[in-house]
Amino acid sequence: MILRREILKAFGLLGASTALLQSNPLQALQTIADKQQALQTIADKQQAASDYKGLVCIMLNGGNDAFNMVFPDTSHPEYQNYMDTRQTLAVPNYVSQPQYLANKGDERYSKQLLPIMLRDVNGEQHALTFHPGMTGLQALSRDQQVAVIANTGVLIEPGSLEEFKQSQKSKPAFLFAHNQQRKAVYSGIADNNVTTGWAGHMNELPRFKHGLRQGKPKAVLPMGISFRGSNQWLRGQQTMGAVLAPGKPGKIIGLGEQGNKRQQARTATVQALQSLPSDDVLLRLMRGKLTSAQDLAAVLTQLWTKHGKALAEIEAMFDDGKLSRQLAAVAQTIFLRESLGMQRQVFMVELGGFDTHAGQIDKQPLLLAELSRAITSFQQALASFSLTKQVTTFTASDFGRTLTSNGNGTDHGWGSHQLVVGGAVQGGLYGQWPSMLRGGVDDYRSGRLLPTTSLTQTNASLAAWFGASKSEVNTLFPNLINFPGGALPLFKNV
Amino acid sequence: MSKSLFVNGISCALLACFNLTPAVASDSLVVTQVNSYSAQQAMNVSSSVTNAAAKLLYQGSFGPTPAALLSAQQVTRQQWIAAQMQLSPSWHYPLTVQYCDGSITPTTIDADNVSRVNDKKSTNPRACLKAQESVWLEHALTAQDQLRQRVAFALSQIFVVSSQEPPLAKYGDGLAWYYDLLVKHSFGNYRDLLQDVTLSPAMGVYLSMQGNRKENLNKNTFPDENYAREVMQLFSIGLYQLDISGQAMLDKQGNKIPSYQQDDVENLARVFTGWDLVANKRYGNRRSGRYDTFMELSPKQHDYQEKQLFGQSIKAGMKADKELSASLDLLFNHPNVGPFISRQLIQRLVSSNPSPDYIKRIAMIFNDNGVGERGDLGAVVQAILLDDEAQGAVTESALKLKEPLLNYVGFLRAFSATPKSEHYQLRQLNGTFGQGAMRSDSVFNFYQPDFQANYQPDLKANDGSSSTLPANQQMTTVSPESQIMVDPLIIKQLSLMFKQTMSNKANFDLDLTEPLALADNSVDMLDYLDQLLLAGKMTPAFKAQLQSHLINIKGQKRQLKEAIYLIVSSADYAVQP
């Protein structure tokens, strides 16, 4: 009960209860203290605005076939290998097939390939193509806000194809198994035996003070927030972040301190029941969950009441796709950063359906178009808050897919391409574009590519940009030292 | 010793039963066993017997109804299980078809009217899915063969198919047909189940074994590995080698030892080529063909070359169905299957954290049911429920959280809920509970078997308050169901419970006559609710809180509703007794 009070007070939302408080002299003093704190808050806000940073992971669940998300243009040296290996599943081939054209009229099944020219760190240009329907990402890429990390994946250490084939280098356990590789991705240490994630550990670094702005004693929401269920990436040693749902938060019907007398009495009894002592592990877990759900409902409902109009306007900038709705919610939560007192926030969102063993030509174009649209709307929302340079978004996935196909889809692979998007990002191509020849120099096994860049190298770069020190980055990513290139230079020099 | 408040139900004119010589107890559920108990014994049932029966019904059914509890308390666990296994199965497919569209021949669809069926689906794709969901709920709430239905639901969370895969969203009837395979084999043999699942249209489409083709080097295409991989990882042997007690075996470096290699996946994928829906328009098409009969072979698409599986050779030229059968035998006879499947069934029915010995005892039954049969699921289910750990002889602590959907279904059953509309329906079932029969987001089910919750709410961590649990307990306790018990869903579930208890706009009518009649006779209705809902686990402190709350509420009915809501919305109800 006390917790809820404090939370509401912490961001000036006591509302109706304030009058009640002032009848008590002690509490009236408290109100004055609150006002002083509020003045301090305004000063903090001005400083905080420039210091805020947000990090967003978009999980492409199932294993995105990124070899069709970004692929060689006709002038690219790997174009012919790509076409030969993929055949009917090569994008330039399938966009004119009857099966694909059957969806004409739906812009997401556009025939138009979207060329982009990406410069690598050596200044060389790479003529590549985005999948049709990804017009928003093409525009962002032309605006130098998109980094494409080529052929990256979970790696413990680098090595040649021969070394891996001869087992002279250690490879991640249980390659090609969805859940195991997702665990390895989230862990940040290529290890599927741990249940924690690198963002969770990063969020627990003392420097971030739970993401709170200077002078804010208590968090209303944790630093890590998932909009797609419980998530390992956000789990640290002690914390696991919050799980929220996109859209207006629900109220708990029948409970809450704002209601009539009977409801207040019921709420008090419920809280008393949840506070009963117990040695039972699962019972205590459930009591904690029920309590936190009620606290959260109270806090979110208040926030939405206060900021409803602005939040609705943000939502209106997005369509109603699954990912769009989650990124809209991220934008809304970023918008609320000052009310929440947050200076650092980390978000997990997810788009599922990428396990395209079958019907890839039908499914993947929709997913990629949604990815592009959602990111584009999100960047527009950030621009409206003048936060383009302060929020970075990146994609992750279980694994890559086979370059070869089964005629109808692709299988579980290893290396893949990922995207990093944001105003602080130095757009371009990172890592090495792979040989796309079946049995070629990068083909670990039947079209599954050995990654040449570790996810660690991207993650380390993201963590450093977010504010972790060099030694903290090295602690978060103990494998980083194995990779001579170190963290990728993904960000513009400020 | 306090007495059971379940004494032949309301029909017994209540308290009068204590004093009168009663007639034979309920004739509904308990078949012949009842007769072996004298009526006098039935009347002297102590509350501990009732509570044990309630516990059994939370493990082996969708929760006690007053009638089911009355019956179950009059027989032993073993007798109850035996009686349940005798009951004829409640099928899902015929009723789904009937609800979906009464105008179409319900059970047997011959080739001539397939197109008619398909046309119907394209015009009203949601209906069959809703019908299927409605039938599931109806059976969960009302079917007599509760144990079978509960086990089928558990199996549906191991052998996962889901309407989330686009073609299946239009085949609610096909999903129901699949579910009936689980119902059929719940007490049958795992090997038969594995075969039927493998050749079923729903699984074929879900994991794209249907329409799989042999390699074609000209086109650079290779067989689809989807089903080959998941049938091993999720449906049979698991990723790494297990000992009989379900613990991972480790190599010298302390690493888990993979139970199969990529070679095995690729070879098994070749076994699974050439199978397609019956009466399909074109090989591999997913939106035509029959979903109500097993897939058939298209020999042209099958790979007849030699295959190597787990170091054994499958000879070239073998018949495709023989080869498939031989491959499934290899999986079936792998030593992992017993512990792998047993642990998950224990987790679904009884305990999230079974002791290694518990797993071992069940796995040994899986390996040999006592008369030399391997894979007898009926024997496995019986052993799971009869184990000391299941009966609460080992610890007083809760063994698992209820699945959120079953938590709610249990509440409805406790008050013999009947729908106000024509069918049993819950709106947004998946969006409220995070689960539903065959509604998982992926083949990895709604939650992972090894999911560990965080036992310390984040917000409290910030002010340095002490952790709620010793670290060693936090690290060893898994609670799969807690993975979907997330705040937004809890908020919806609490609201729904409130509406269902308090509001006239609820989906179901609850039958409150029995507790109200007891209250009229000065029996403590909280004791009744304790036995029915908490299997007697209500603590004195909990009861005292309820009493001090209820004292301010006028009217027995309002008090009762308030009490029901406070109990079913509590953490104490959310853990399985």
Quickly describe the structure:
Chain A is an alpha/beta fold. Chain A has 17 helices and 14 strands.
Could you characterize what this model shows?
- The complex is a heterodimer of chains A (494) and B (577).
- Chain A is α/β, with parallel strands linked by helices.
- Chain A is built from 17 helices and 14 strands.
- Chain A has helices at residues 2-10, 17-22, 25-51, 79-86, 91-94, 98-101, 135-142, 161-165, 178-187, 198-203, 261-274, 281-315, 322-335, 337-340, 360-384, 455-466, 470-476; strands at 53-60, 70-72, 114-119, 125-130, 146-153, 224-226, 242-243, 344-351, 391-397, 416-421, 428-430, 443-445, 448-449, 453-454.
- In chain A, α1 packs parallel to α12.
- Residues 1-32 of chain A have low confidence and may be disordered.
- Among the domains of chain B are: 10-86, no CATH class; 190-334, no CATH class; 337-391.
- Chain B has 31 helices and eight strands.
- Chain B starts with 15 loop residues before the first helix and ends with a strand.
- Chain B is mainly α.
- The chains are: A alpha/beta (494), B mainly alpha (577).
- The interface between A and B is large, with 90 and 90 residues.
Mean pLDDT of chain B: 88
Shape of chain A: globular
Number of strands of chain B: 8
Q: How would you state the average pLDDT of chain A, rounded?
A: 91
Quote the distance from N terminus to C terminus of chain A: 46 Å
